[in-house]
């Protein structure tokens, strides 16, 4: 966990700050050299803007990036105005182009996650009364680690943001109640029939995982020609039984921290109906909420 926290701080704070300071103070040999460096910084900013897990720090910090970039880019442009257009090719120029190409590849991989093929299953968002954040979502492993799994290709992990725009009180608290989404009421996203449920697994301390029961307490809901899985629910919170018909908007459970999960969140994905032997098997299909295909850093109020 310390590695994850350190990586996030380094990627989302330390590197951007270092790039801003460097671009502000750097002495360039030509306008072309300045443009290469500006491109390198811009592409990195775009990459972390799309793919960064900003809920660990604050979602609102994310929007400081474009403001800071505009200020620093304007200052560096003023410094570069008097430079010659071009200077002889150097190893440094090739290095900057190489770094820019690598980061551009990652940025385009993140951008790919915003698109999908096929017709999505249209659902109602299953959480209310708060600000909700998509931690994992989209059609690319760069912004959705589930994407490599055929069934969970379009899965979403959803958090709730507190007043500071963070998912929890602290980076990695051990108390379940420090996570904004813990105990939130889950509402049915569609009219359908519950085909499978598990309701008796324990709520785990954040950091502990139950790998034998990866979905934890969960509901498999059949609707619109698909099976909708909602996982990691609170023990004994599911209010219906197998075979029960539920309507869109009915309260059906609460969000917990059961199963193979590091912290409280709601996992939801859809598969073609009756295509898997277990709740985590089958052919995944895209889902949309009120007409929106959600990806990492999507926020719903």
| H/E topology pattern | HHHHEEEEEEEEEEEEE
CATH homolog superfamily of the largest domain: Glucose Permease (Domain IIA)
**Secondary-structure-derived class:** alpha+beta
Total count of domains: 2
Quick one: overall form?
elongated
Our measurement of the CA-to-CA distance between the termini, rounded to an integer number of angstroms, reads 29 Å
What Rg, in angstroms, do the CA atoms define?
22 Å
Helix content: 25-40%
Strand content: 15-25%
CATH architecture of the largest domain: Distorted Sandwich
Main beta-sheet annotation? 9 strands, antiparallel
Number of strands: 13
Uncertain runs: none
Mean pLDDT: 93
CATH topology (fold) name of the largest domain: Glucose Permease (Domain IIA)
CATH class of the largest domain: Mainly Beta
Number of helices: 4
